[in-house]
Amino acid sequence: MKTSNPIIYIEIPVLDMDRAIDFYQTVLDCVLEREVLDGYEMAHFPFHSNQGGASGSLVKGDVYKPTKDGVILYFYTNDIEQTLERARKFDSEILYPKTINTDLGYAIAEISDSEGNRIALKQLITS
């Protein structure tokens, strides 16, 4: 079976699951669902199988180590300024300030999450 989107699922390492859930639910304005799977504490992002894109989970366990030096995950937002403001309430560090690319029609920014991971935000813009 071939898929048009080769990335289907991500796992974000966390140290403190409650703190991470609070951060992501507040900053991304979504609800995560908790589960323990194979002995690992997880919190799943919403996923709708009839829509495009990947989903993922926050995961806590011995093999999961937060970092700013690895893969950068991009999260879509309808309002990057509002999302950055919510992140600031968690003392999130701005690692790459909001930058607008008018040629490609988007704005991006990179921040630290509550666990020390580098994540990015992307908003589509119209002229």
Automatic annotation (TrEMBL):
It holds the Pfam family Glyoxalase. It comes from the Bacteria. PROSITE patterns: VOC. Residues 6-124 form the VOC domain. This is VOC family protein. It comes from Sphingobacterium corticibacter.
